[in-house]
Write a structure and sequence with these properties.
With 338 residues, this protein is of the alpha/beta class. The chain has nine helices and ten strands. The longest helix is centred in the last third of the chain and has 32 residues.
Length: 338
């Protein structure tokens, strides 16, 4: 192998056990083991998630190394998710990473999960990459942020949710509609054939670049409860329109704040990241906005939207270049600051 570092990435912040191998910025493997056990509970059960990680971590890492067609001794450093996330899940990934680093005598790199989502745009697959500085709308089940990125290691959150996240609002709305978990993709699916203007929901009035989704979540719940009280078949008869309207309302809030951030910073290089960046309506509305306004837009491949280890490995790559290593005393944090 050349002197270009080979990074093993480990991601275990929630319910997916992930391992990836990157040679520089090029991906050699990206393995994800999903946990179907949570579907019957309508959400992730932390204890079950950590147990499944313990079962999956070694087979997943082994599969990543074999698919990359390398040997363990070829690995230059190991990067792991320090947080934010479920503490029990994070502990499994961090414990494995620390043990592997010690056993192989290689550097250990701690990565912020949300920064990993942003830096997934720099995995080299022959596609254009953002130029610095750029803005990233980072939207997931637990986070909704607008981040100003000056360099791979210089990022500033300029807008964030003051309560609920956009992804949580999708999932909670889906639950109210009686859809299975995870609900966000199902809302996206049914919305394709619905009228996005069929129903109106309350709009938050939050200053500056921050977000709030608790109010719209309550508004959605009350509208549906009133509808069902008048007509027991209200949801079934209006499911597509409800999904389309919910989706349109959430995406409109996101884009309004992003446009405001662009105006305030004069930065027209924009990107999206996080699980909700897989939403087809958000993608299409962003493309329309970028085309109309002349912005340069970067949308990640679907495999890099949801949790994956390639994003942890690429973040680890940039930290490796700066010799920004962790030591064996490093501990994961459920609420790791950006």
């Amino acid at each position: 192998m050349s002197k270009t570092p080979i990074i093993l990435g480990i991601e275990s912040s929630c319910d997916d056990t992930c391992a990836a191998i990157l040679h520089g910025q090029k991906i050699l493997s990206n393995i994800v083991a999903n946990q179907d056990v949570h579907k019957i509970y309508g959400g992730v059960v932390p204890e079950l998630a950590s147990r499944a990680h313990q079962q999956n971590i070694i087979p997943v890492v082994d599969a990543a190394i074999k698919k990359a067609n390398i040997k363990k001794k070829d690995i230059t450093a190991i990067a792991f998710t320090k947080g934010p996330g479920l503490l029990g899940s994070l502990l499994v990934g961090s414990s494995f990473a620390k043990s592997f680093a010690m056993g192989m005598n290689i550097p250990l790199i701690a990565v912020n999960h949300m920064q990993g989502h942003i830096l997934s745009h720099f995995i080299d697959e022959g596609e254009p990459m953002p130029e610095f500085p750029f803005l990233c709308l980072t939207v997931s089940g637990g986070h909704t942020q607008i981040v100003k990125i000056e360099s791979p290691n210089r990022m500033e959150v300029i807008g964030t949710t003051i309560d609920d996240a956009a992804g949580e609002t999708f999932d909670k709305s889906a639950k109210i509609l009686g859809l299975s978990y995870p609900g966000g993709p199902l809302i996206d699916k049914y919305a394709k054939n619905g009228n996005p203007h069929a129903f109106e929901f309350g709009k938050p009035k939050i200053k500056e670049l921050n977000f709030s989704f608790s109010g719209i979540k309550t508004s959605i719940m009350r509208l549906i409860q009133k509808g069902v009280a008048k007509n027991p078949n209200f949801i079934a008869e209006n499911l597509k329109d409800l999904c389309a309207s919910i989706q349109h309302s959430i995406v409109s809030i996101l884009l309004k704040k992003l446009e405001k951030a662009i105006q305030q910073t004069s930065i027209t290089q924009i990107a999206i990241a996080g699980g909700v960046s897989a939403n087809s309506y958000l993608r299409s509305e962003l493309e329309k906005l970028a085309t109309t306004k002349g912005y340069q837009l970067y949308i990640p491949k679907l495999e890099y939207c949801t949790d994956n280890a390639a994003m942890i490995a690429i973040a680890g790559y940039f930290k490796y270049l700066d010799a920004n290593f962790a030591d064996q005393s490093e501990t994961p944090s459920a609420r790791l600051a950006f």
